[in-house]
Amino acid sequence: MAYKVYLKKNEEKRIVAGHSWVFANEVTKIENKDKNGSLAEVYSYDGRYIGKGYINHASKILVRIFIRGNETDDEEFYLKRLKEANDYRLKLGYDNCYRMVFAEADNLPALIVDRYADVLVIQCLSLGIDLRKDMICKCLVKLFSPKGIYERSDVSVRKKEGLTEVKQVLYGEVPDYQQIEENGIKMLVDVKNGQKTGYFLDQKENRLTARKYCKGEVLDCFCNSGSFSLNAATIADKVTACDISELALKNVRDNADLNGIKNITTLCGDVFEVLRNFKKDKKQFDTVILDPPAFCKTADEVKDAYRGYKDINLTAMKIVKSGGFLITCSCSHYMSASLFEKMLIEAARESGRIVRSVEIKTQAPDHPSLLCAEETQYLKFFVLQVI
Fold it and tell me: Which three-class secondary structure state does DSSP give residue 333?
């Protein structure tokens, strides 16, 4: 018999507004007995039905609600939800590479599906979704007929669900590198070993935006596979792509060769040290791009992350030529937009430069955010001019 989960008084407001997470400390009692990872019904304190979601007693997030009516989580249900998610992207004009399913924002909590041409990559971030990944893959094959489906559930958050990290082929054939096209540029995506699911799809439109600020000499920091570098290289005279990973830099060079781009050079090193050395040597650039990995993955790390963001942004401001641009990003939702902007204001003041804000953007439309769930709004993208 399905679990019945009853919330404490007044704990239902956030969830009724559309947030999917039910935390264990918000629950007053649980009735009935079923398997861990099964579909559980959630009720308010006074017995009003709220919705259904997968339960996991090992997680602080006890239930993730994704059904608000009387449906059940059968194959027909998943076919409908997956098609709706993909139809939204098609409506926006996405066709070659995009995030097909963005978890909570698509009312499929803990499920990520990315499309790289005819290969799909999925992440299963909860016990309930993990138990149903075979059915989900069957639905993806039926709907989209991919050449292959690869699982990139090699993320530490799975430990909170009592799950191990895993990477594996779930269907068909998956190459080590999958070719996609973004903004007219060909890119080789390291599906099996690249960061996240192989590529950062959430910056696609921002990389196109960045082009117009990339005349002259450009420094792209934390370049990863070179997506910002290659977009910049279509406009710039010279691009220096910097990353601490030599494997990433090889990917940059391969992608440049794939496109016949000759004006990119790679630099292997710690970005913090590289920036300080450029400042010491009085080397300046027309544009500096900072797109670091998340400096904080928990609320407890925000203070240290703030110092890290300020360090690189302050130094970057000092090595931008007068009239040049700093393009700076943060992908941690714990570093809120207001806090990130506060950091930039402090960095500008301490840099001794006059800095003005030119453009502010967020994640791509294939990564929509829920107004009721701040966790889904995470990317900050600022274009600043250093006078």
Answer: coil
Query: Which residues are CB-neighbours of 282 under 8 A, at least 6 positions away?
Result: none
pTM of the predicted structure, to 2 decimals: 0.94
Active site residue: 221, 329, 331, 372, which one? 331
Residue 198 CB burial class (10 angstroms; 0-12, 13-18, ≥19)? buried
Spell out the residues 6+ positions from residue 97 whose beta carbon is closer than 8 angstroms to its own: 114, 115, 116, 117, 180, 181, 182, 189, 199, 201, 204
329 is catalytic: no
CA-based angle 78:83:85, to the nearest 5?
100
Q: Is 4 exposed, middle or buried (0-12, 13-18, 19+ CB in 10 A)?
A: middle
Model confidence band, residue 122 (pLDDT cutoffs 50, 70, 90)? very high
Which of 268, 237, 386 shows the shortest CA–CA distance to 316? 386
Q: Take residue 37 and report the two structure tokens written for it.
A: 């990872």
